[in-house]
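Protocol step 4 of 6: record predicted structures for both targets in the notebook before any analysis. Target 1:
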Amino acid sequence: MSTTPPPQALTDDPPAGELTEQDGALDWLRALGPRGRRAFAGAFGGYALDSYDYFTLPLSMVALAAYFGLDSGQTGLFTTVTLVVSAVGGALAGVVADRVGRVKALMITVITYAVFTVACGFAPNYETLLVFRALQGLGFGGEWAVGAILVAEYSSAKHRGRTLGAVQSSWAVGWALAAIVYTLVFSFAGDDLAWRIMFWTGALPALLVIWMRRRVHDAPQAVAVREQSTEKGSFTAIFKPGLLRTTIFAGLLSTGVQGGYYTLATWVPTYLKSDRGLSVVGTGGYLAFLISGAFLGYLTGGYLTDRLGRKRNIWLFALLSAICILAYANIPDGANGLLLVLGFPLGFCMSAIFSGFGSFLSELYPTAVRGTGQGFTYNTGRAVGAVFPTTVGFLADSWGVGGALVFGAIGYGIAALALFGLPETRGRELA
């Protein structure tokens, strides 16, 4: 079958009248129907718990470094290994989603990241923890791409940006839960035990899998395509002439955005505690502003990606995110109140840029290879973007964590340039 996008998808304008009507606040949710809403709940829960399991490491980084006697470069390697291996897991999950179905692939990813997050809590040394964290990345890499495709195929073109933005907002929910648990655990347990408890709580996703197995199903049109297609789940298909340009530039876009994001997600907790001298409770308070900004950013970005278009939304927030990083990293000593105030717009902007990703990447690929294309480009970007937090780790000893955070701004510049090679897809139906 042909993998060339339909001519309509190559224009920058949506179909006449497609996105001009006023909608109720929850029309996007009602439009999903009962099966679609269950799919939304499964993807939302899976991504929230994915976020929770991911943040068990950054929040425990200072305690881990002290326990195992690690320098900044070694702690930065935790994130790099997680993200690099997640690229493999994400690409494989996309193929599995195209071949056996979205829901089955989603459950596999959730089980994988949960099992190895718990295993991290039993690690006797640095090397073992590094291996377990890498294996956790196999599941972590695939969950978002598969869940986003599952929901995108239930969504109408008119509401897809808002719907997928709402799914992505669950990342902030999981982040907030992790910050709350971190504050409680590290307040009542010694650091040597607290980091292990954090990882052990990563068993929570098992409950979600039990529910999903009985209640969540693939969209009927995706099932029909999977049964009929001879090219489903093919890596070669996304590198054929009709999709090669899309694959290259979508991977570059993902690299820039995730390089910027994971620089912040990995190093802000350490920056607050080590460079700014905040206590555990103080760090949790500052993170509350950052996370609340992130949650509202996902929802706002989802709305704007439907109103402005996928590309304009990403351009806007790439610029604003870069500005926020530079401002955040250059706050003078003693101005921790300003640090608190800037945490909200920083979280808002670096999350709003992600809101269009679920709809944009889903719309760039045809159904038969949608999982493969989205899984490959998003997670290749995650792997290459992992260079950014590692660079910060190796420069932190000489530049300070705050100074090294400027590398995140470079990532957003790369993302903005990559958009010149991609079409606007607002209004595209997923056949």
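Target 2:
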Amino acid sequence: MRQEQTQAASFGLNFELLEREQVQSLIRSPLFIAGLKRPDVALVNPARLAWGLRRACLDLGIRLYENSPVTKLEEDGNFVLARTPHGCVRAARVALATNAFPPLLKRLSYYVVPVYDYVLMTEPLTPAQRESIGWRGREGVSDASRQFHYTRTTADGRILWGGYDAVYYWNNGFGPHLETSQREFERLAEHFFQAFPQLEGVRFSHAWGGAIDTCSRFAPFWGTAHGGKTAYSLGFTGLGVGATRFGAKVMLDLLDGRQTERTALDFVRTQPLPFPPEPLRSIGIHLTRWSMDQADRNGGRENLWLRVMNRLGLGFDS
């Protein structure tokens, strides 16, 4: 954390290092032994953000067609045809921002996989329960493990608790049937009460899950198809609420054929290594998750697999 604080300062960011007593004065948990406080960060409700973007689009005269999934893209001269169950849309330019959904360009299926993240929400805490943990503000918290948890409070006094596992299902498994997992919910509940044993007996009122997209470098990538008439941006690995704004600007630059400071970045010009086919894909992903868990349990010490991944520019440390 001291290294992260120093690195942030070189970019003009003021991270405050908190020792154990300072952390406990904010949130009482036996697991929290130090922390970094980031006053420059704001919490966003993703649903409200999406609703706000929708309203802004409508105010600009943009037409939205929900429940009209595009099933196929085809090049048609100077245009691209987007086929839907209700007919075709003919467009001069197409921006693909499909995230974890099965990609419409087959080549992208080699570069991204959907992994499922799960979340619990408690019932509203009583005043006594809230007092037992402190946490009088609305700070968002994430721990520093490789397989990390994230947590925040809500306006009506609940605690959202999620993260840890990013579950991959065989052969890029995807669909509503994977949005619940009793095993993952039970594991999250166990971890919650390890973090807040003083809340033993609190019930969870909601539990859900959803897919995020990830690629081998755990960061977004870009590209074009159909002679530059289609552009894509994906691979955000769960960190897209802020980063997708930059991703969209790059996509628009690519569609316009503009050479900009953004498109000149090596980050934008390069792509991650593709995932191997099954069964190697599942073996590699599960081995990586197991190795990350072992590193968390062994003071951050990485095994040979993680060290090789780092050398190849793969994974969190790439």
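Step 5 preliminary note on target 2. The longest helix spans residues 280-297. The mean pLDDT is 94.
Proceed to step 6 after PI sign-off.
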